[in-house]
Structure formats: C-alpha cells, structure tokens
Predict the structure of HTH lysR-type domain-containing protein.
Amino acid sequence: MYSLEQLKIFVIASEKGSLAETARALGRAQSGVSQAMANLEVDLNQTLFIRSKSGLTLTSAGKSLLPLARQLLRQADFFDQQLLALQRNEEAEISLAIDESLWSEGLLQAFTPLQQQFRQTRFHLITASTFDIEQMVAEGKVQLGVIYQDFDMAKFVEFDFHFLGNYRFITVASPQHPLAQLAEVSPQDLMNYVHLTHRSLNGQELWFAGSDSEHCWYANDRLTIYQWALQGIGWADLPEQMVQADLTNGRLIRLPLAVEPEGNQVGVVCLRSRSHSHGAVSEWLLAMFKQFFAQIKG
C-alpha cells in the first residue's frame, strides 16, 4: 500500500525532473528516494516515470495520477491543520454580527490577522442594527455581537456582556438645511423639521434617539439616514466617527444645540452567546475589539 511520503516524493520528482534534485529538496539520500519511487510503482502496478540520462519524464499513467496525488497531499495537510486547530481549542466556525454603523476601514484592517492566525476557522459576518443583533445573540443565531449599549438589556439573559468603549453621537444636517442657518438650535426648532430616525426592524430605538417630532423619516440602517442628511432631507443623530470626513469637507455641519451641545456618549459592547462554547478565536476577537475601541476617543 502506498504512503503519503511516497506520494510526496512522486510529486516533488515530477516538479524537479530528477531524483538527485528530489533528494536534495527533501534532505534525503538519493538511494532512499530512488527506492521509495520504485516501491510506489510496484504498489501501484504502474510505471510513473521514464528514466533517462536527461532526467525523469512522466508517463501517461504518471500524468493521470499526479493531480490526484497532489489532491491527496492537500487533504492530508488540511487534516493535520484541522487536528492542530482542535488541539488548540480553535472553533471550526464562528459567526459575528456588528452594528452596521460601527463598521469602518480601521476595523476591517484589525481583522486581517484573524485569517492569518486561524486558517481553519470559517468566518461568518453579519451587519445589522443593535436591537436586531441583540435578538440574534440571545437566540444563539450568532456567537458574538458588537453593538451600542442598550440600557434595557436585562430582558435578555442568554449572553455575557463586555464593555469595549464609547462612541459620540452628534446632531448634523446639510449646510443648506434651514437649521444650519441658526446660531443656536432649540428642541422646538428641531421639531419643526424632519428628524431622520434610526429604528430596528421591530421598531426599537436607542435611549437618546427617540423623537417627539411629528416629522420623522425612519430607516433601520444609519447609512440610509446619513445619505438622507447629505441630501438635506432632515437632521439626524449620527456617530461622529461616521460623519467626521463630511464635517471636515463641509458636506455636513454639526448643529449648535441649546441642549446637549456635546452630543451623547454611547457605550459600545460585545455580547457573547451562552448557547455556544467559546474557544481561542472568540477570545482573540474579544481582545481585538477591546483594543480597537479603546483607541477611539468618544
């Protein structure tokens, strides 16, 4: 019966075209490599190479079997890597949901080492709103959720809670909006214009985001609200990190509020489902999130 070691020699010999070069590549004696190849041909009952002074040339049988040998070696390598991952307590699959307005280029870059370190883990990312993610974690549909802090989270008991940092929400509008022309904006002024309001799919809002205005447009993602604000449709409460570039280039302005002029500090938290076991990948993600959001000044 042929061995993986014999198949490895077969593949390398096909690439090198010489048993001497194959032996050097493997750090083995040429006689041992030559004997291993001869034994493989006996085990397979096939001649794999035509041997000549100029080197090795694959036979038709060798050409036919070479791709399969490479595939078997890849599968064996995958098996070894998967076994090592299990020994290191690395999850085979992990699902993560992040509030869509927390996603950024910087956070994307922070994920890069994940693939390099945990090659055997399948990764599934979902972007949604905070309240919808809470429900996903509570029901065990995802293992981790990164969201804004909801002070009514006591209604869910099926997750662990980890504080990550703060995001500042500020009130913004287009420079062409009537509110942008005021030296100071009162609550009554705000109520006279369309409030671009974020709501989850089941109609929930963060503690500061509700509105007494009769003029509201609702969306379940902040990117839509952000685009509406750029178009001058109304005013909105948005994460400062999300709109910073547009504040700098003048596409949006921060409204001078008479009440809460500094905006609202909103906690960012990571929820971990208790219906899943958590291993090395989950721990890596939690540590990465803590480091990333701690660097952001709310």
Remarks:
- Residues 18 and 271 are 58 Å apart (CA to CA).
- The longest strand covers residues 159-173.
- The mean pLDDT is 86.
- The chain is about 40% helix and 20% strand.
